UniProtKB/TrEMBL annotation:
Coiled coil: none annotated. The keyword Oxidoreductase applies. Signal peptide: none annotated. It comes from Flexivirga aerilata. Residues 21-481 form the Aldehyde dehydrogenase domain. GO terms for biological process: gamma-aminobutyric acid catabolic process. Keywords: Oxidoreductase. It holds the Pfam family Aldedh. This is NAD-dependent succinate-semialdehyde dehydrogenase. CDD domains: ALDH_F5_SSADH_GabD.
Amino acid sequence: MAQTQQAVEQVKKQLFIGGEWRDAEGGKTFEVDNPATGAELTRVADASVADGEAALTAAADAQADWAATAPRDRSELLRAAYELIVERTDVLAELMTLEMGKPLAESRGEVTYGSEFFRWFAEEAVRISGRWSVAPNGQTRLMTMKQPVGPTLMITPWNFPLAMGTRKIGPAIAAGCTMVVKPAAETPLTMLYLAQLLEEVGLPKGVLNVVTTTDSGGVMEPLIRDPRSRKLTFTGSTPVGRKLVEQSADQLLRASMELGGNAPFIVFGDADVDKAVEGAMLAKMRNIGEACTAANRLFVHADIADEFAKKFAAKMDALSVGDGMGDGVEVGPLINQKAVDKVTSLVRDATDRGATIVTGGAKGDGPGFFFNPTVITGVPGDAAMAKEEIFGPVAGIQVFTDEDDVVRRANDTEFGLVAYFFTRDVARVIRVSEALEYGMVGVNQGIVSNPAAPFGGVKSSGFGREGGFEGIEEYLETKYVGLAL
């Protein structure tokens, strides 16, 4: 307990604006709770509209100088921040587990994953380039250059409190953009501590500004409509993403949206069943199932469906559920009671429609927002869990017999973030990868996220890419210069 309290006490609970830590207007605060117990962890500043405007002013004032900073200097700041994050892994991991619920081992994994975005974009900062060419008529020369978009608004979610921040902040720093970051009210501590680390390595004042608030719409909408803002990046639900895109249209902001998912996980009849089960465990249970990349609909070929379901259910049933700070815990609590109620409703709807619970199916005992790992077979295509993001430790299995049919069923959704499939047929790998209407496809693996790869979806899962060579382009404008001879 002392170590836990020490981690929370290391976080500054104020707003970070213009390089200064300051109270919210009127001294307002809000509580941050531990989902494993429902108890209050601490309180942090609750920003007002005026506080948000002050943060944007600080970002706008710092933009010109930051854009003029040498790429190598920006690179070295990111590299130093990467090394400091790794050094403070234990503190960051404990903060994430305490405010979000995931097991400590998973939180440490997120620190490793999240820090890599800083290392990756430290290397990209010095590789921003344009081109030089002769015009087709030979009379002029064509030159292009890349320049930072400008002050960027960032809205990050609660499920990956560190990585969803570093995935946005890293390329912005590398490109020369200043920022206003609004973390989720459920999990502000990790972002506040990250701001402290960036301050510690010498990030200039005003480049990063962090506003924590319970009034996300009220604080952020005026900033989105402010002509000083030049980009908006959001990770979260599709309904909220649609509203933000509408708001951003007034200023024609550059926008990147990483929104909801409804990932299919297809196991073909020729797949290695044991490997497919391991892949399904990763795709379904990473982050307690609270991930937009989580396997939402499991399609298993009829020839192996019984074997797969039996082995998968056994592994799910063996998972240890409890407070993420506990030794050996593999499944922590969901984020809040609303999440538990949603998962409960989805399970009830599926069983009412004839599905069968193989294991789990109920919330955990005692305090906190727990739901037991659950496997359901015979899930009909019209069940709610076949259409909506589950965002919890529940896996619904459907059976198929035909490749074309399962691809059609997999694509029969408004979402298009990620899809997974397992097969040993090389020709099928090509066919199905091309046919799936998704921004990312995992073949014979249950995790696709990688800082070196472009992350993003199509259709109602959003647009834009984060990570990879493509990630920094979201923060750069292309300027063309025509030179007459």
